[in-house]
Amino acid sequence: MKLGFTQADLAFRDEVRTFLRDHLPPALALAEARYSHLGREQTDAWQQVLAAKGWAVPNWPAEYGGPGWSPVQRHLYDIEYGRANAPEYNIIGVGMVGPVICRFGSDAQRQRYTGAIISGELHFCQGFSEPGAGSDLASLSTRAVRDGDDYVITGQKTWTSHAADADYMICLARTNWDVKPQAGLSMLLLPMAGPGVTVRSIPSIDGIDSINEVFLDEVRVPASALIGEQDAGWNYAKFLLTTERTHNAYLGLLYRYLDRLTAADAPSQSFRNRLEELAIDVEAHDWSVLRVHSQDDGGMGAAAASAIKVTASNLLIRAADLELEAMGLSSAIESARPGLPLPSWMDPDAEGKLAQSMYWRASTIFGGANEIQRTIIWSTLVR
Amino acid sequence: MEFALTSEQSQFRDTIRRLVVSMPLNASGASGASYGVAWKRFAELGVPGMCVAEDRGGFSGNIEDIALIAAEFGRSPTTTIRLETIVAAVDLLAAAGSVGEPWLKRLVAGETQPAVAAVPWEVGTLDLSTLGDGYTLSGVARSAIGGETADVLVAIARLSSGELAVIAVDLEQVGVVRTAYRLADTTPVADIEFVGLGVSGNCVARLADGGSLVEAVWQNATLALCAAAVGGMECAIELTVSFLKERAQFGKPLAQQQALQHQVADMFMRANDARSSLYRAMGLLSDTAHHQRASAIAGCRLKVGDAAKEVTGRALHLHGGIGFTTEYPVGHLFRRATVDDRLLVGRDACIAIRQRQSTAPVEVVRDKRPAALVA
Lengths: 383, 375
Fold this sequence. Notes:
A: alpha+beta, 4-stranded mixed beta sheet, 4-stranded antiparallel beta sheet, 12 helices, 8 strands, B: alpha+beta, 8-stranded mixed beta sheet, two-stranded antiparallel sheet, 10 strands, globular, disordered C terminus
């Protein structure tokens, strides 16, 4: 054991900081600071800047286009990136589809998709949840039936973020009814523009309507759209959800909140003290994430990844609540949708903050509800 | 950054763990004498020497090694030796130049057992006045850990000029009054009182920069205490998981109740983040940015302190009645977390340090009996 950052680590952090300061467009940073879920039309140009630098897919293996960073470098990058108000982009493509294809995909799939994800050409959404299959994901009923050289997919997906923005869905569908539920699922890449796909936006309490229903009516995809083996989709989904849990650490965003709240005029000493306790908890979370990246797990890797997801969601809610408190009445105004009337006295910085705080309420649900994570933690402990 | 233990580190940890486990459960009858016996065994193993840097004749002095030992002590429901006492003694002696050197040598050799006050930087408790070539010492070192059996008190005293000094006072001399008692986790302590005791100049090292010594002591001792608390939490979780698997109610093991499973998951999350907070504070210890280091340690102290009470308290709850008995170790872990919370730096002091309202924990004696009772 030898803890602490090396001079090289700190030099790397400075390099990232300088690059972001010199290249991130201020207007983009401002939009991101208001509400951190920008569309691809806002982020594509920026993604290309990162791609040119070789930093577009920091979580990928180097042989498929990742930067080849050490766990510590990856970690420092995530924090600096969020702190600089740099936006996330193509979360499903970069965060999930890429790693799954690199690990389990065919050469043809790697050829087709990895470069296109890095360049921003292709965006993805995730087709997992269904009206009847939420936490009990393995009970899903969307069917993929083999028909000659094709699969024909029918069913309904829901709570699908980015569906309107996506070129492809990474879809979990049932291909086998004769085995236990987990053993009959397959993972397929399904084009959103093809016939049989209907996307309907769901009005949501964050005021942004970021979620959708997706209806799949005999959508025909070639057999080459299958990832890995037929009926092995659950394994890939588990791999992907573990990746997602560390992806959902939200360190950059948490430090962004701390930076903003520390710079703001604190309404009281009580507020300052609560902010200090939040900072202490974020710093601890920070190193929990670093330990997972560094695989300091002592056999507790799955538990530690789940713990990160739960902690991050709770910290985001606390941080967002503190921010609303600091902004007073301005933060209670419905301001997320463009074109709404706003009072003249409204703090312009409050715009989008309520929507953002509402969105974090979803973070205890998505990526495996926090109770699912607690069950995973328990099973790891009791093993 | 390397989180994995080296093979030497894990060997050493295993040795300490074996010795800790072999100590008898003595929850109700721990005495100063049993502390002395335990001390001898750890001293033979070279534990005090591990807290001393190699260039001062010790075996390590690395914070990683110290934390490793402390965590094992913290796991133990029987060992009342607190590594933070040794760490504080070492820092004080090392700052005391020729006054500290002979004691430091004896400490490494396992030939002395020092006592250190529960809050070593407590201001206004020990006063020095110059008298000829030497000094007179008055006041009391409160709740000095291991004080009943110690042969030397290592402390910070104040001269009438306000200057701070490290004192190393031989306790086996006439004029030293010890009042022995126990803390609630059975740690044997003593108030060590002096009434105008004459001490020679070679027991007193005046400090050019007392402030930075206080800073080093509170920071290093706090890390050792936090490491022990992290060990205690992990032990509490292991005990709880085994208990829930064995104990049956409603015709099935408690381990099958989701309401209980999720409480254990919460305990894991608290303990895991506490460990991360400790690692962060250790990782930033050599950071040259002064405030960054103090802030990380104060944050760690607050985080670990809160988590230790919550995790051991939850373990107590999940054990039901058995946890409340002194026969079973989990109650001891809870008592220890409660006592820990009163030692070294308090919660408010941690916040103040982080908010730059102070650079070191200023502890004022506030537990004095009302004047009427004293009379």
